Amino acid sequence: MDETIRLSSVGKVHGSPPNEVIALRDVTLAFPPASLTAVMGPSGSGKSTLLQCAAGLDRPTTGTVTIGDVDLAGLGETALTRLRRDRIGFVFQAFNLLPSLTAEQNVGLPLRLAGRRPGRAEIQDALAEVGLADRAHHRPGEMSGGQQQRVAIARALVTRPAVIFADEPTGALDTTTSRNVLTMLRGLVEHRGQTIVMVTHDPLAASYADAVVFLADGAVADTLAAPTPDVVAARMTRLETSC
Ligand SMILES: Nc1ncnc2c1ncn2[C@@H]1O[C@H](COP(=O)(O)OP(=O)(O)OP(=O)(O)O)[C@@H](O)[C@H]1O
């Protein structure tokens, strides 16, 4: 089953006249299965809006978003909520784990929200995928930042989503820990065919991606395959100085 995520001529206007802000302009992109895509761009260039529209958290003003052959615009609120819950995983800069729950309970949360009693094996599998099989009974406060982010990634994986959207997943981590988390994300793409779309400001993080999409003023300014940190940094500098 082809589960490519496609944005076709997506535009997004926030607010209403006279305070309209055009956040996305005619964005056409595809995120193919088993790929890691980095989304970069200056502050206010539309990265978060792009993620929100691609994830069905916000509806585009114009254009379409499809996951495989499902057009998100054709879904009512209930169906869209179900699609987000079952087919999309989210990872955030601040981990967003519940502090009073163990790693195992945090990872099981999306299944509980879907009305299912989580199976021990599926939670253990998700924790093993992020190298934390032995931490199932620890609470977030008993783990390092990198370990907490790995629990959050296990939580995103547990529903076997078509795509994981990650908003600055290494933004709160030091360089060494970031590298570990990025290597792990890369491994999920290579070994289990996971599709991941990651917003980042960090050229090093972007260099782990298969492709980088650069946004400027709401439009795709450039794309780069096989990125290296130096080339990414140079393109970012060029974009930041031209806006
Ligand atoms: N709810 C909103 N209402 C009005 N304007 C908004 C809203 N959300 C975003 N914007 C505007 O849309 C534009 C794009 O914002 P967005 O948050 O997508 O950018 P970004 O690239 O993620 O920025 P940053 O890197 O600073 O987080 C900005 O001009 C922003 O001020």
UniProtKB/TrEMBL annotation:
Molecular-function annotations in GO: ATP binding
Top-rank taxon: Bacteria
Keywords of the record: ATP-binding, Nucleotide-binding, Transport
Keyword Nucleotide-binding: yes
InterPro entries: AAA+_ATPase (IPR003593), ABC_transporter-like_ATP-bd (IPR003439), ABC_transporter-like_CS (IPR017871), ABC_transpr_LolD-like (IPR015854), MacB-like_ATP-bd (IPR017911), P-loop_NTPase (IPR027417)
Ranges where the ABC transporter domain occurs: 5-242
Pfam families found in the cross-reference section: ABC_tran
Name by which UniProt lists this protein: ABC transporter ATP-binding protein
Gene source species: Actinoallomurus spadix
